[in-house]
Amino acid sequence: MPMSAERPVVTRIAPSPTGYMHIGTARTALFNWLFARGHGGKFLLRIEDTDRERSTPEATAAILRGMTWLGLDWDGEAVSQFEQKDRHAAVAHEMLALGAAYKCFATQEEIEAFRQAASAEKRSTLYRSPWRDADPATHPDAPYVIRMKAPQTGETVIEDAVQGRVTFRNDLLDDMIVLRSDGTPTYMLAVVVDDHDMGITHVIRGDDHLNNAARQTMVYEAMGWEIPVWAHIPLIFGPDGKKLSKRHGATGVEEYQAMGYPAAGMRNYLTRLGWAHGDDEFFTTEQAKEWFNLEGIGRAPARLDFKKLENLCGQHIAASEDAALLHELEGYLEAAKLPPLSETQRNRLSRAMYCLKDRAKKFPDLIEKAEFALNSRPVQPNEVAAKNLDAVSRGILRTLTPRLQNGSWSKETLEPILTEAAAEHGIGFGKLAAPLRAALAGRTATPSVYDMMLVLGREETIARLEDAA
Question: What region holds the Aminoacyl-tRNA synthetase class I anticodon-binding domain (predicted)?
Answer without folding.
Answer: 338-468
